[in-house]
Amino acid sequence: QVHLVESGGGVVQPGRSLRLSCAASGFTFSSRTMHWARQAPGKGLEWLTFISNDGTNHYYADPVRGRFTISRDNSKNTLYLQMSSLRAEDTAVYYCARSELSGPDYWGQGTLVTVSS
Amino acid sequence: DIVMTQSPLSLPVTPGEAASISCRSSQSLLHSNGYNYVDWHLQKPGQSPQLLIYLGSNRAPGVPDRFSGSGSGTDFTLKISRVEAEDVGVYYCMQTLQTYTFGQGTKLEIK
User: Are A91 and A117 in contact (CB under 8 A)?
Assistant: First the structure.
C-alpha cells in the first residue's frame, strides 16, 4: 500500500529556513517522479516543484524559484524540500506526491508550515 | 504559463442528481500522442487530495464509474452521474502538459 508521510513542519520566523521530508513506502520510490505542492489556509492547491526519478531534472514554480530546493535520497526512499528566505505568504500545508503517467496520482497527508514572528 | 479556469466555483447539488464542472485552459492540452494532459482531483473536507481522472478521461483505480472526464484541446468537463453525500469537497482540474497548474477549485455541496 502506497504511503507518503511528510514531516518537518512547524513555526518559523520570516527569513529563516526549514527542511521538509517525505518518507515513501509501498512502491518503488526510485522509479517515480515526485512533487511538492501546498495549500495556504482557506485557499486552493498550488503546485511548487517536481524532481525526476533519478534526481537529474527538476523545475520550480515562480513563487519559490531561487528560494526552495527539491532533492531526494533514493537509498532512503525520502524526498526533501529545503525552504529558505521564508515569508509569511509561504504559510501553508505542504504535500508531497508521486506521479507516473500524468500529474500526481497519490498524495501524502501534509505538514503545516507557519511563518510568523 | 498555462492558466486553468474552472466554473462554477460553487456547486450545490441534490443527492441523486447529476453534476458537471467545467475547466478551460489558456492553451491546448492536446499532445501529439493523442492524450489530453489534464487531471481531476478531489479534496474532501479535512483530507489530502485524491486523483479521480488522469489524461482527460481515465478513471484512477478505485474511482466509482459515476465519475467521468471528457473534452479535448482547451475545454474539459468532469461529470458525476448521480451525486452522493460522500462526493462533497473541492474539485480541482490540473494541467500536466507544461509543468503543472491547478484550477481555482469548485466546491461541491449537498443541498
Answer: no
The HSE-up count of residue A72 (CA atoms within 13 Å, CB side) is 27
Enumerate residue ranges in chain A where pLDDT < 50: none
Q: How far apart are CA A33 and CA B48, in angstroms?
A: 19
Q: Kindly list the residues from chain B whose CB atom is less than 8 angstroms away from the CB atom of residue A97.
A: 49
pLDDT given for residue A41 in this prediction: 97
Q: How many CB atoms lie within 10 A of CB A60?
A: 18
A44, A103, A109: residue with CB nearest B39: A103
* Least CB–CB distance from A105: residue in B54, B101, B103: B54
- What is d(CA B96, CA B108) in angstroms, rounded to the nearest whole number? 23
B36 to chain A, minimum CA–CA distance in Å?
10
Given this model, what pLDDT does residue B68 score? 98
For chain B, what is the mean pLDDT? 97
Each residue of B25-51: b (16+ CB within 10 Å) or e? beeebbeeeebbbbbbbbbeeeebbbb
**Residue B6 to residues A49, B3, B9, B30: CA-CA distances in angstroms?**
22, 10, 7, 18
For A14-43, what is each residue's pLDDT tens digit? 999 999 999 999 999 999 999 999 999 999
CA distance readout (Å), B83 to A102, A108, A117, B41, B53: 26, 26, 45, 16, 16
Q: Is the peptide bond before B8 cis (omega within 30 degrees of 0)?
A: yes
